[in-house]
Amino acid sequence: MVSRQAQAGRNLRQMAVDALRKAITTGTFPPGTHLGEVQVSDQLGISRGTLREALRELQQEGLVSYGDRGRVAVRQIDEKDIINTFTVRAALEAVAGETLASSYYREQHCQSLRAAVDDMAAAAQVSLEAQIEADLAFHELLCELTGNDALLRSWKLLEGSIRMCIMYRGLERALSNMSADRHLEIVTAIESGDPVKTQTVIQDHMVATAQALLFGTVRSRRPINILGEAPPTGQEERPEKHA
Predict the structure, then answer these.
(1) Cα–Cα distance, 215 to 86 (Å, whole number)
(2) How far is residue 82's CA from residue 75's CA, in Å, rounded to a whole number?
């Protein structure tokens, strides 16, 4: 049985994790910010030991990184990180979509997903942050409904990196592929009962999201291949010249 003291320690650690995650993913602590133990522990009103535990959890989520002599800073990402993150995300969510499209309970799952799409539409009238949270909630639900715990755990481990990608060049750019209508396309594909079609729709959705983050727009063809090898950082395919 867990003692009250141990439970209190867990609660403090979770409070620190939640506070730091929010500060990082909202840009209060921009990429590269040094997270000094003394300053941050004083700010949060926790011990340095509890802070270290919280930072280790955030490291697993991909939000912070450790440098020389244990120096901790908010992780800095580049174009290759975005491509790699969305390659893995596309694979996970495509499996989720295939599973739901083949499920006996497909109709019930789609009802839940449609409710999540409604939440997205409502969130768009509230704030940028609310819209992002509603978007992530939809995609987490997509994985959760499969009943595949390993799949859901893998997605949750990736969530921190997804949030960092969203912050890469500002929230406005990230929102370009977060409309309720774009996500309704995923639900419609699942409703069709066609696993291959669903996989394609989800993969295209991820390509479009990555393009929006990298280039500020969704391009008509794929200058990046998030389903294959990522191009070197800083390089992107140039538009073809026509005679």
Answers:
(1) 15
(2) 13
